[in-house]
Amino acid sequence: MIPFNQPYMTGKEMLYIAEANFNHMLAGDGQFTKRCHDWLETNSTSKKALLTHSCTAALEMAAILADIQQGDEVIMPSYTFVSTANAFVLRGGVPVYVDIRTDTLNIDESLIEAAITPRTKAIVPVHYAGVGCEMDTIMEIAQRHGLLVIEDAAQGVMAKYKGRSLGAIGHMGAYSFHETKNVISGEGGALLVNDDRFTDRAEIIREKGTNRSQFFRGQVDKYTWQDVGSSFLPGELIAAFLYAQLEEADAITQRRLNAWRVYHDLLEPLENAGLIRRPIIPAECEQNAHMYYVLLSDGAQRDHVLKYLRSANVNAVFHYVPLHSSPAGMKFGRVNGDMKNTDYLSEHLIRLPLWVGITEAQQKMVAETLRAALQ
What we know:
Layout: H1 13-22, H2 31-44, E1 48-52, H3 55-65, E2 73-77, H4 82-89, E3 94-98, E4 120-123, H5 135-145, E5 148-152, E6 160-161, E7 164-165, E8 172-176, E9 189-193, H6 199-206, H7 212-216, H8 236-247, H9 249-266, H10 268-272, E10 276-277, E11 285-286, E12 292-296, H11 302-311, H12 327-332, E13 334-335, H13 340-346, E14 349-352, H14 360-374
Parallel strand pairs: 2-3, 2-4, 3-13, 4-5, 5-8
Antiparallel strand pairs: 1-9, 6-7, 6-11, 8-9, 10-12, 12-14
């Protein structure tokens, strides 16, 4: 079986975990957490990075910082993971879904302004497959209407838009380090705070609503309950594992990009034959090879193709069921405009196996099996 994903380890993870254990640092915000924060701030140029126990937690923190209240609207794509919407629904917010672009499968920036109402509080672009949304336009719209921009950059670590790191362009951004991502810690995430208005409060919300971080820096003589919050930080063992990955993030990204290019070359004949469409990467985007997907032609039956691939020991998968067509998505959110691109593209997409260490021979087998399934 060629698995869909295979978590990659650099070789230093267990050493750093042992070091954290030896130093009796198991709870959060130890030395490895600080190293991760420093790395993220340096490499993304974010004003403040805070590790969380998941990207979901980072988005929930962002919703609190955005002061989402009952009935406040948040504009986002429907073609995304449930956490993008759930984080705001938990605060009483209403997801407003707009359609996606046909090239990148990112939110269609030209449809955002028509979805703005007096209740709109934020725009949440999702950088699908580690390819940046049209952030200049989105930021300009947000500025004119006094809105916040919260980037769901779960898939965007090490990816850039016009030279700027995804997650560090909007007012806030969220990363994921889930084992299916490029840089991993099993579970885990980070909130990037790029607006000085939110940096101090973000620390308090993350630490159960207390000013504990200020206490440990010697800024206050005791810490107390200051605000709403929860326990959003990960344990130190997670941070130790993650730091080993961050140290090798450049090499990991390069190896994934190499594998991505192998697929892109192997599948060119199928695209030329009109059987598939390969991913499109705009010139202004520096992707991170988070995934390689193909879009099947109108005549292809995706379920048949997936079944054929699995019968040949190739574990390919489809991706999201659009939120606007899910029970909770219809209950808690609403659609603005039609969703023809979202509906069509989501039904024709297949994700191919991709991980650090996949061999060219395995990729050739995947490509040949896909060709056989389609023909």
